[in-house]
Specification:
single chain, 105 residues, mainly alpha, 434 Repressor (Amino-terminal Domain), 2 domains, 65% helix, 0% strand
């Protein structure tokens, strides 16, 4: 993983300029400009400040990109995982059939 690319991607997702990121992370503009122009790795303290500005942890920063599951889907997954195997199969059968309200041919 290229750390600067990850920072840049997170910054662009938020529509921030480098100056915005510097302000949000409470870093100097020159600190960030040095990272970008020298293509150097940031100090851990700088990276922590940047992560705090993005509202993420260091582990989230280094975690592979994953799709965020909406709360409703997460609740469903939690309920389904608590079901016994026979109930899971029954639910799968129900969901694999025709959509509710449709008439099967």
């Amino acid at each position: 993983m290229d750390i600067l690319e990850r920072i840049d991607g997170l910054r662009r997702e938020r529509g921030w300029s480098v100056n915005n990121l510097a302000m949000e992370a409470m870093l100097t503009q020159s600190t960030l400009n040095n990272l970008y122009t020298r293509r150097s790795e940031p100090k851990i303290s700088t990276l922590r400040a940047i992560c705090a500005a993005f509202g993420i942890t260091l582990s989230e920063f280094f975690a592979p990109e994953t799709r965020q599951i909406p709360p409703e889907e997460e609740a469903l997954l939690s309920m389904v995982s608590a079901l016994p195997a026979d109930k899971k199969r029954a639910l799968l059968t129900l969901l694999s059939g025709p959509a509710l309200g449709e008439v099967s041919p």
